[in-house]
Amino acid sequence: MRRILTLSLVAATVVAITLACSREGRADAGSATKAAAETLWRELPVAVPGAPAPAAQAAPLTTLAPLIKQLKPAVVNISTTTVTKGHPSTPGFPRGGPQGNPHGGQPGGPGGQLEEFYERFYGQPRQERDFRSNSLGSGFIINKDGYVLTNNHVVGDAAEIKVKLSDGREFLAKVVGKDPPTDVALIRLEKAPHDLPTVALGDSDALEQGDFVLALGNPFGLSGSASFGMVSAKARSLQNGPFDDFIQTDAAINPGNSGGPLFNMKGEVVGINTAIVSPQIGQGIGFAVPISLAKQLLPQLEKGNKIARGYLGVTVGDLTPELARGFGLGENVKGAVVQDVIPGAPAGKAGVKAGDVVTAVNGKAVEDRGQLTRTVASIAPGGTASLSILRKGKKQEITVTVGTRPDEEALARGEGAEEGEPSGDAVVSGKGAKLGVRLQPLTPEMRQQMKLDPDVGVLVAEVTADGAAASAGMRRGDVILEVAQDAVSKPDQVSAAVAKAQPGDVVLLRVKRGNQTSFIPVKIPEPETPPKK
Fold it and tell me: Which fold has domain 437-523?
C-alpha cells in the first residue's frame, strides 16, 4: 500500500496525516474571492494579448537565481510548540512508576496499587506533567499586514508559533483561521512591521502537466532551500477525503517543506507543499494544495470562521462505461450519477432524481463524482447551482439553492449524506445466461422497516455464485427498486424486464443495500456454446 507523508518536521520524524482539497466551483465564490484579492493578497497584472513580453521573460531561461532572490524573502520558517497532557510522573521515579514499571497507572496493571502508594507516601495522587514537543514547517507572507499561509497540520494544535524571516527577524504568530479538510491555515504575525516582503498568488487551474515549478521552504530545518521540477500531474486524489485534488510535482520536497510555496516561472504561488510519498516506496513524488482552492477559503479564514460549504444532499457515483450503456448514453459522455436523493435535501426539493447524470454545474463540465462534490462545496450556502443533467437520455437544467454541508463528523454519524460513491462493487464479468438470482416479494413489515413505498421493492433472496448478478456485485438481502429506471414491486416485473434484454446488453438495476442505494449494471452474457461431440 502506498504510504503518504506530510512534510512538517516533528522531532526529526515524518508524520502521516490525512488530507483533503479541491479546485472546482468558482461560480458563486467568485465575487467574494475577487473582492478579497484587493485587500487580503495580491496578484500579478494580467498580460495583454499581443503585447510584447517583458524583457526579463523574452530571453531563454538559463538560471533561476534572479527569481529565487526575488521570492525568497517572503518565505518563512515556522516553528511550533505543542503541549501534550496526560503523562504521569513523580520526582524520584522513572516514567511509569517505581522501578520503571511500564504498567503504572494503566488499567489492568498494578496502577491501583501505585495510586495508593502515592497517596499514602506523598499525601496526594500522582501529578500529571505537561510534555512539550517542537516541530518545524514553512509558510509564505501574502500581505503587508503579516498574514501567512501554511498547512493546518503545521500550526493546528500549536500552543506557541514562531515565524522567522529570511533576514533573521523573528515574530510570534497566532492562528487566524484553519480548515483541516483541506489542510490550509492562515496565521498572522504579532506586531508585524510595515516593510514585510510578500508574494503574489496565481491561478493553479491554469497549470498544465509539464509546467516548470519552483519549491521554496525549510526541509529538515535547512532554511531557504530551493528545488526545481515540473507539474507531474493534476487532480491527484490520495483517497483521504472528498476534497482531494492535489498538484503532483517532482520538485524535491522533504519533511519541513510543509506549508511552503510552490511557484510557477512568473513567480506566482500556485500551490502549498503538503505531502510526499514515503521515501521507502518512491522518490520525486510530492503533492501541493492548489492555490486556487486556498484563495476560495481565504475570505472565511481571515474572519476566523469555520468554512461553510455548499451541499446538495445526494449520493453520487462515477459514470462508468457499463453504467453509460445501461443508461443508453454514448461512450464519451462524462458525469456523475445520482444514486440517491436525501428526502428534504436541497437537490430533492429542486427536483433532482435518482438516475440523473450530472454533466455540468454552472456551465462548468463535471467529469466524475469528486469533481461534482468539490464544485458544489465551493458554492456558498444559499447560492445557486445550475445543474446540467441527462434524465433518461434527455438534457435538462435544474437550479438548486444549495444548503450547508454537514461537517465530516456529522456525515459519519449519518446526519446527512456524503456526496460520494456508496459502498458496493459494480464490476461486470458475467457467466451464465441469466441474472442468477431468486427473488421474493417484500412483506408490509419489511417495507415499513426499510421505509419503502408500498409499490417499490423486490427482495433478492439468493444469488447464484456463477451468475451475472453475483459477478456484478449483487448480494443476498439486496432490494431491487428499479429495472431500466422503471420501479418494480413484484418478482415477475423484474423477470419480464430482464427477459427483454439480449445477450451482451446491460440491464441497469437500482438496488438498496442497508442505508445505501446505488445503480448496478448487470451484463447479460453470451450463451455458452455446447461442446461438439
Answer: Pdz3 Domain (2.30.42)
